[in-house]
C-alpha cells in the first residue's frame, strides 16, 4: 500500500507553517473538540490541532515536517494507529470517499471527513471526531426495531400455535387412561411435558416483547423470599441440592409487582440449578438466598456453587437470545433484567469458573417501613 501512497501527491516533506493561517482562525481550530489535519498540495502537513496529535498519541514536534508517508512510518506511532491511518488513507485519498469510520483499540468509534478538490486548491483537510454516543443511539434504535418486530412475531406465534397446543393437550389428557391401560402412560407424560415447554417458550417471547406494567403493592422481602423457597424447594430437592435462606436483619419492605418479582427469583434459582447440574466434580449443590439493607436500597442475593461463568459469558448474560443452554431461548435473564429496571432497580452478577455465581438484585426501599 505504501507504494500507492508514494505515487500520490502527498509526498514531499516540509516544515509545518502555522503562520499561513490567520491567528484568530488558528486559535479556534486549536481548541475544537474535533481533530483537524491539513495537508497542502505537495503533501506536507501544514496544520494540526491539539486534538489531532492527542488522538495519534504523539507530540506536535514529532509531526513537524511530516508527510503522510512519514507519519505512517513514524517510529513512535503504534502499530494500531498506523493501521487506522492506513485505512483512512485508502478510503479517502485512494478511493475518493469523503467519510470514513473506524473503531479504535479502546472500543471508541471515530468518523473522519475528508475535504479536497478545486475549492481546496489541491489541499487535503481531514477532520476527526468521536461518534461513540451516536453509535450507541444507532444501536439502541436498531434494538428497538428488533423489539417491535419481535412483538409482531410473538403475537403471531401466540395466535397460531398456542390455541392448537391447548387442544392437543386436552386430547392427550383424554387418551391418557387408554395409554395407561396399554402400559404406555410415559408417552402421555412426555407429550404433555413437551407441550408445556412449547407454551413456556411462547410465554417468554410474549414477556420479552411486551412485558406488562408492574402492578405494584407494598411487600415484605422476608415473605417474598420464603414463598419463593416454598415454590422451588421440591424441584431443588429432586435434583439433589439444598436451598437455604440466610437470616435477615429485620424485615424490609419494597413496592413491587409480587408476581413479576417471583418470576425473576424463580428464574434465577432454576438457572442456578442448571449451573450446579453442569458441574462435573460431584460437589453437593447449594443455593443461598438472602437480603440486606444498603442505604436506601435492599440487596437481594442469590448465590450458587455451580460451574460459574467466564467474563465473556457475563458480558452477554442479559442480551436477548444469548444462551449457553442446549434448549434455552436466551430470554429469561433479559426479561428479568427488564422487570427489575421497570421497578427502578438493577441486577449485578459476579462469577468465577468452577466456583459459582452470585446475582444481586437492588431495589429501592419504602421509607419508614422496616421492622
TrEMBL record:
<dbReference type="InterPro" id="IPR013767">
    <property type="entry name" value="PAS_fold"/>
</dbReference>
<feature type="domain" description="Histidine kinase">
    <location>
        <begin position="156"/>
        <end position="367"/>
    </location>
</feature>
<keyword id="KW-0547">Nucleotide-binding</keyword>
<dbReference type="InterPro" id="IPR003661">
    <property type="entry name" value="HisK_dim/P_dom"/>
</dbReference>
<dbReference type="GO" id="GO:0000155">
    <property type="term" value="F:phosphorelay sensor kinase activity"/>
</dbReference>
<dbReference type="InterPro" id="IPR003594">
    <property type="entry name" value="HATPase_dom"/>
</dbReference>
<dbReference type="Pfam" id="PF00512">
    <property type="entry name" value="HisKA"/>
</dbReference>
<keyword id="KW-0597">Phosphoprotein</keyword>
<protein>
    <recommendedName>
        <fullName>histidine kinase</fullName>
        <ecNumber>2.7.13.3</ecNumber>
    </recommendedName>
</protein>
<keyword id="KW-0418">Kinase</keyword>
<dbReference type="Pfam" id="PF00989">
    <property type="entry name" value="PAS"/>
</dbReference>
<feature type="domain" description="PAS">
    <location>
        <begin position="21"/>
        <end position="65"/>
    </location>
</feature>
<dbReference type="Pfam" id="PF02518">
    <property type="entry name" value="HATPase_c"/>
</dbReference>
<dbReference type="InterPro" id="IPR004358">
    <property type="entry name" value="Sig_transdc_His_kin-like_C"/>
</dbReference>
<dbReference type="GO" id="GO:0005524">
    <property type="term" value="F:ATP binding"/>
</dbReference>
<dbReference type="InterPro" id="IPR035965">
    <property type="entry name" value="PAS-like_dom_sf"/>
</dbReference>
<dbReference type="InterPro" id="IPR005467">
    <property type="entry name" value="His_kinase_dom"/>
</dbReference>
<keyword id="KW-0067">ATP-binding</keyword>
<keyword id="KW-0808">Transferase</keyword>
<dbReference type="InterPro" id="IPR036097">
    <property type="entry name" value="HisK_dim/P_sf"/>
</dbReference>
<keyword id="KW-0902">Two-component regulatory system</keyword>
<dbReference type="InterPro" id="IPR036890">
    <property type="entry name" value="HATPase_C_sf"/>
</dbReference>
<dbReference type="InterPro" id="IPR000014">
    <property type="entry name" value="PAS"/>
</dbReference>
